[in-house]
Design a protein that fits this description.
- It comes from Candidatus Neomicrothrix parvicella RN1.
- Keywords: Dioxygenase, Oxidoreductase.
- This is Putative Glyoxalase/bleomycin resistance protein/dioxygenase.
- The chain folds into two domains: about 5-65, 2,3-Dihydroxybiphenyl 1,2-Dioxygenase, domain 1 (Roll), CATH 3.10.180.10; about 80-175, 2,3-Dihydroxybiphenyl 1,2-Dioxygenase, domain 1 (Roll), CATH 3.10.180.10.
- It is built from three helices and nine strands, in the order E-H-E-E-E-E-H-E-E-E-H-E.
- It has helices at about 15-25, 100-110, 145-160; strands spanning about 5-10, 25-35, 40-50, 60-65, 90-95, 115-120, 125-130, 135-140, 170-175.
- It has a five-stranded mixed sheet, covered by helices on one side. It has a four-stranded mixed sheet with strand order 1-4-3-2.
Length: about 180
């Protein structure tokens, strides 16, 4: 069973739309607009996250554009605004293959975003922040998990203080240009 969609509030709909369509390559597939119980109104925008030509239901990310009287501007950085390090709560998307992984990394860098690449051994990841302060990741699996890893996962889950894994190799790319999306 897959995830149908994950929804977040946005403080800047235009910048969010540009980020997820132009940089991430997602497609806006549905917008629902309706009054809110608090007397205002809202738009709920759905973006398909699957690559073109995908067969079946797309996984989606959705954003709420809220217009509610007396509502403070939303705090949208899903980790930092909760007092957590920014890497804790994040969105990870499947890069599917090496070509798409490289293309997504390059798209983020070409948009002027600071990009970090990590080799986790079982997968490779590139990270950047969206206009809402949400850390987004493109992840490429490089091998399947083993039966031994599944056993070790349960052992670590039960451990008071687990053994640490090796730290991943890190590459940080500084933006060559100013960010194009606020």
């Amino acid at each position: 069973m897959g995830v149908h969609h994950v929804a977040y509030a946005t403080a800047d709909l235009d910048a969010t739309h540009r980020f997820y369509t132009e940089i991430m390559g997602f497609s806006l597939v549905k917008t629902v607009s309706a009054p809110t119980p608090q007397g205002g109104w809202a738009k709920h925008l759905f973006y398909a996250t699957t690559p073109p030509g995908h067969v079946g239901s797309p996984g989606m990310i959705a954003f709420w554009d809220l217009h509610i009287p007396d509502l403070e501007p939303p705090k949208t950085a899903i980790s930092v605004d909760l007092g957590l390090p920014d890497w804790v709560n994040h969105l990870a998307f499947d890069a599917v293959n090496e070509q798409r992984f490289a293309a997504k990394r390059d798209a983020m860098m070409n948009a002027g975003l600071e990009v970090v690449e990590l080799d986790h051994e079982f997968c490779r990841s590139v990270y950047a922040h969206d206009p809402n302060g949400i850390l987004v990741e493109w992840c490429l699996d490089v091998r399947p998990f083993t039966a031994a890893e599944a056993t070790q996962a349960e052992t670590k889950r039960l451990a008071e203080q687990p053994e640490f894994d090796d730290l991943p190799d890190l590459v940080s790319y500084q933006a060559a240009t100013e960010p194009q999306i606020p």
